[in-house]
Amino acid sequence: MPERDRYITGVPCWIDTSQPDPEAAVTFYSGVFGWDLEDVMPPDSPGRYFMARLRGEDVAAIGSVPEGAPPMATWNTYVWVDSADETAAKVRDAGGTILTEPFDVMDAGRMAVFADPEGAVFCVWQAGRHRGAQIVNEPGSLNFNGLNTRDAEAAKRFYGSVFGWETAVFGGAEMWTMPAYGDHLAVDRPSIHDEVAAMGVAGFENVVASINPIAADQPNTPAHWSVTFAVEDADATAEKAAELGGTVVVAPFDAPWVRMTVITDPQGATFIASKFVPENTDVAASADASAAA
Predict the structure, then answer these.
(1) What's the pTM value of the predicted model, to 2 decimals?
(2) According to the model, what pLDDT value does residue 102 have?
(3) Pick the CATH number of 12-127 from 3.10.180.10, 3.20.20.140, 3.20.20.70, 2.60.120.260
(4) pLDDT at 285
């Protein structure tokens, strides 16, 4: 997969995890994904922000819990926008909540934190020097972002208004799409439309995220955004995470196109690890596993 230096408006472009003890999280995630990590904050900063890299390219980050935020670990999804301020106005108009007003992150970019009407928290990123994840869809890097929701119709109205997202169904699963995204990817990979069509999922190149219904038997699971990492071996990743103090919430299982597992790190942040398995094309989807993340 080509290394990236740009995204288009409305596409998830970055992830980081907020951790009560970021140094401990560095030990865990470097062991699980093989990341090289560098603290990019000034020595006198009250918080830490460790940039995670593969082959010297940015893939994610581990940071301190922001001041005033609940002391809990979580993974955060960032969506690329042209203007964080204009997006904030759209979020307000669509019934969302501004949790953190737009602010500059030195010269790296400008960001804001929002919640959709159901309470799912997400961030937006107006790029400056930092251009988002430079490697995706490779082992140890971001593979997917998903909205876990009880009210998909309300979510469609909100995210359609804010980002212009549409939806399409692939293999029985509903996905967020942007028709312009496939054309954007085709600039660096001209054959992508034909490749995806040959796999029997024409249009999947336009997918930007997934919609995951929260099961009725999970009444305590709030609406939230989840992150999925590509891995070489889901079973080995689950085993390694457990060795390093994590918890395997959902044991490795086969799903359409993938073998995946749901893991919680030692401080409580949950993520999905997924291996692409083309021969799993016709495997039935599990309704509950993704919502557990």
Answers:
(1) 0.92
(2) 98
(3) 3.10.180.10
(4) 57
